[in-house]
Amino acid sequence: MTATVLEIDDALAQYDPVMGLEVHVELNTKSKMFCGCPTEFGAPPNTQTCPVCLGLPGALPVVNAKAVESAIKIGLALNCEIAEWCRFARKNYFYPDMPKNFQTSQYDEPIAFNGWTEVVVDGETYRIEIERAHMEEDTGKSTHVGGATGRIHGASHSLVDYNRAGIPLIEIVTKTIEVPPAKAAAVARAYVSMLRDLLLSLDVSDVRMDQGSLRCDANVSLKPHGSDVLGTRTETKNVNSFRSVERAITYEITRQAAILSSGGKILQETRHWHEDTGITTSGREKSDADDYRYFPEPDLVPVAPSREWVEELRATLPEAPSVRRARLQEDWGFTDLEMRDVINGNALEPIVATIELGVTPAAAKKWWLGELARSANESGQDLDALGVGPAEVAEVQKLVDDGTLNDKLARQVFEGLLAGEGTPAEIIEKRGLALVSDDSALLEAIDRAIAANPDVVEKVNSGKPAAAGALIGAVMKDMRGQADAAKVRQLLNEKLGI
Hints:
It comes from Kribbella speibonae. By secondary structure, the chain is α+β, with helices and mostly antiparallel strands.
């Protein structure tokens, strides 16, 4: 019986993974790609539609100029060439959420092409070649009702919401990615993370992966060590978190390796990623470009951005992510290892935002890479999906700074925040977490510690002041950790005349 998967080390001992990543980015324009309908997320179903985005007869599209501007900025930031002349095409296929039965996209004439970028994984820099970044429109959204998985198989009926149909999309397509086999999945994760940071800095998308405004299609194939012949690829669709990108690619490597090592063949197909089980399942047989019957869109004029406009947009680009990271590392005083942990933990942007709220770099790093990272790992989530943001971290740290909390109590506040128990102030009140600042209460606890530990007092009085640490510990235990250790030490020293 053929094994479902191989262990990842066994798979990589036999095969080299080859990847291609297609990242779909919903732009943050106020209107859709080819009509004036709004793009607000979460509106009631089918309330943001018109004859154009519903594909009704006689409706004529018009290109969104802001979307073209965003596409050029993305292309420039990825070191692409910007086309002097390009046009849209019709990509023909049937699916219920395609109201026109074709998608208006770009095929052989993209607006941006032949670019590159770099990512850093474990201190090593990897160059990612960009094939193209092209403009298109998003599809609607199907909801399958009555089944156990939320997919069409087994559902009793389906509902279609066309609000998303026509939302401006940029699809960023890499060339073939071949890196050291053991680094493949991590490089893919780092690339998608880097793109998110880049797009945020360009202010062209909110890149909310939980809302689908940034999603990745991961193409994976395997070839035997030493071979130049590429294997048959699969495409895992709509992976919507950094962690899932890494897990989905790792799973496909192990699944394909098991099939190939047993003499089987890989089917070229799309596959669905299941976050709960950590596996992919078959979707549909993958179509080639010829199957889509591309032809130029007759209802849209070509797009021909002037060189002057392109250069004006180039002048507005922010720092490249790699340059920005180096600057921030120097500003923050982080070591290479500390910065590597920040990047690998996808904590850069939360830390930046927290520091901007007045928190020191060291304190921001402590919380994001400590309590919050641990919770994210345990729950299998990314940091930005925890429900705790820079504002809450800054508020907790301010309470530490002003003496209301110590680090131990602050960790309990974060525990409450992650559990949805309210604001930091509400959690402190509910759990009774504030530090005791009343000197008289602290002095009473100190008196109890002295009375209970005469041998320790004798050591202190005989010239061994370090022994006082045991008394401080006794006071902290008496106060259930709700005392400022520095304040306790001060009062104890005064009491003992140290």
